[in-house]
Amino acid sequence: MSGNGRAARVIEAKGLTKVYGKGEGRVEALAGVSLDVAPGEWVSVVGPSGSGKSTLMNLLGLLDRPTSGRYVLDGREVSGLRGGDLARARRELIGFVFQSYNLLPRQSARRNVELPLVYAGVRGSERKKRALEALEQVELSDRAAHKPPELSGGQKQRVAIARALVGRPAMLLADEPTGNLDTKSGVGILDLFGDLNAAGVTLIVVTHDPEVADRGDRIVDIRDGLVFADERSGGVRE
Amino acid sequence: MRAFRIAGMGLSGLLVNWGRTILTMLGIVIGVAAVVLLASLGNGIQKSISGQINDLGPNLITVSPGTSGEQDGGDNGPFGAAAASTLTPDDTQLVDGLPGVAAASSNVSTVAPVGQESVSFSGVDPSYDEIRAVELAAGRFVEGRGEVVLSQADARRLLNSGPDEAVGETLSVGTPPEDAPERDPEQEGPAQGPNRLPERLPERLREQIPEGFPQDAAPEQEPRQEPTREPTQEPAPEPVRKYEVVGVAEASDVEFGPPIPESSYMATGDALEVSGVKTVGQIVVQAEGAGDVDRAVDGISKELREAHDGAKDFSVITQRELLSTFTEITDQLKIFLAGIAGISLLVGGIGVMNIMLVSVAERTREIGVRKALGATNADVLFQFLLEAILLSLIGGVVGVALGIAGSAVLPEILTDLPPAVVTGNEVALAFGVSALIGVVFGVLPAYRSARLQPVEALRRE
Ligand SMILES: Nc1ncnc2c1ncn2[C@@H]1O[C@H](COP(=O)(O)OP(=O)(O)OP(=O)(O)O)[C@@H](O)[C@H]1O
Ligand SMILES: [Mg+2]
């Protein structure tokens, strides 16, 4: 499950479409997106509101099903996966960071981080050890016993990142991870992403903030459900 | 092993979310407790009403001598056709053992002189007070020979005393021999009551010791044995015997059903001896239940006829009208109470359903999170099933305990309520239905949420 032996492309998506609704209310959120992501890359996804960024992330994170298109994740065709295989792909290949954290409010930070390991079948003591390691990685060891309501927004997002990391996935997907945070906390999260990326973690980060986008190696600009631009970072600046 | 871990996590989740856990459980507790309580109170009311109707004698069967119409026997009371009777105490014995018969008693009417007065006695067996629901104002009913229970009127007339004072007194029954008219009243009469009371008490206790039991011959015992020997000593037709008053009967106020005649009672054997006849005027029988009356009547008719060499020289009378009223009332009551129990079960079930639906529906987002992190639908269902089972079981047990406790306490507080009767069937039904609803509606919404794409589940709320 580690970086060794991974495919040349973490993500190979071809012609992904997503259509919501039918007839009058039909919305083509994605009109055919193709995207390749190499291991260790940091890809920023930008675009106007409603352009389909979140829709794309949900497809890439296996949280939703494309209407059509092909998706190869870490060398495996995952478009047709169902049931147990799909759940396994989610927990082994993907770490997802949400804008709104999506932590279980009553469980301690450590227990939240342990959650993916429960479904991976890791036994209790090992789970605890790895959760604490992940919390250490996000510099939150001293908050392991705290529950989400007792944490700041930035701290909550760190717990969420630790949870996304703990299963050692092929990549980390983050949909506006700093969207709910003040600038200072946001910078903290981005620094963390920088460290993780430096350590070899593949990152795809949706953002509205050009400065955040610039932290990535690449910027993918989505407009009206299509890739409008896909360039190396800095190339399109100013 | 993986399932084991998910189970452990689910349980720790129940503890961590103790507020929600308790609230959900409370829904089940209240549902189950309400059903158990209502059903038990209903049972108690039914039992009480049935008991009260039973006291009126719907299970009563009267066997009267003669083949006359079925209507007169019951009204003849203890004076019914004693002269022409063909019924004997042996017949009573025979009837008592028949299927569907709870108890049977002879009834011999006799009039005997007591001092200057003449008193009507019903000679009956000890089971008579059960069969006819004789209410006692004091003391106990006749349990053997040598004992009498006086009516309140007779107690006043003969002893000039109220019920409580009359108990323990001794009466001389029969025409006194001319040479010793004064002896007996002097010896054991009421006049000596007050100062002899303490001695009388152990004497009465000894009375209850069965015959033949070796008794320490106390000196005051001797006059007591005298009367039984008297008939052999003196050939008088109605020898004087001394009887102890063991109880005083309440004036009966039966409003319908066969009237219980205002009477004083003695043992069947004594009445036969006093009246000098060998037959009984009537046999009163109590069927085991209202539904057993027909069976008992058939048995009695058949067996007595055989015992009487095929002669149908008796009639068997039942309280048909009362019986049908009785079954009508109890049937209606049963339907009514079943309705109440059913409605409370429904209401309780809907309550359980509601709380489970709400508590699980608000966890759709949680389900989305779990699925996003790699839980399969089966994992989610397993966790929610486990939680629902645990909540339903614990809630059900607590509810049953609370319902039973309430059934015990409520009639104590509301004294007009008859004691509740908790039956296993209803407890099981309340528990089973609530637990089933709890599990079904704990899992169903979880199943619905689990089938959503994770992103859809996360969007809810
Ligand atoms: N569940 C849905 N049902 C119907 N339409 C949807 C649904 N989700 C998204 N859409 C539509 O799809 C389009 C793309 O939505 P999406 O959330 O991907 O945009 P976005 O780029 O993430 O916007 P933002 O920057 O505001 O988050 C929008 O027009 C939106 O209205
Ligand atoms: Mg979005």
UniProtKB/TrEMBL annotation, chain B:
The keyword Secreted does not apply. Residues 221-232 have a biased composition (Basic and acidic residues). GO terms for molecular function: transmembrane transporter activity. It is found in: Cell membrane. InterPro entries: ABC3_permease_C (IPR003838), MacB_PCD (IPR025857), Macrolide_Exporter_MacB (IPR050250). Keywords: Cell membrane, Membrane, Transmembrane, Transmembrane helix. Pfam families: FtsX (PF02687), MacB_PCD (PF12704). Residues 340-454 form the ABC3 transporter permease C-terminal domain. One of its GO terms (cellular component) is plasma membrane. The keyword Membrane applies. Residues 21-174 form the MacB-like periplasmic core domain. It is a multi-pass membrane protein. Residues 160-198, 212-240 are annotated as: Disordered. Belongs to the ABC-4 integral membrane protein family. PANTHER family: ABC TRANSPORTER PERMEASE YTRF (PTHR30572:SF4), MEMBRANE COMPONENT OF TRANSPORTER-RELATED (PTHR30572). This is ABC-type antimicrobial peptide transport system, permease component. It comes from uncultured Rubrobacteraceae bacterium. The lineage of its organism: Bacteria, Bacillati, Actinomycetota, Rubrobacteria, Rubrobacterales.
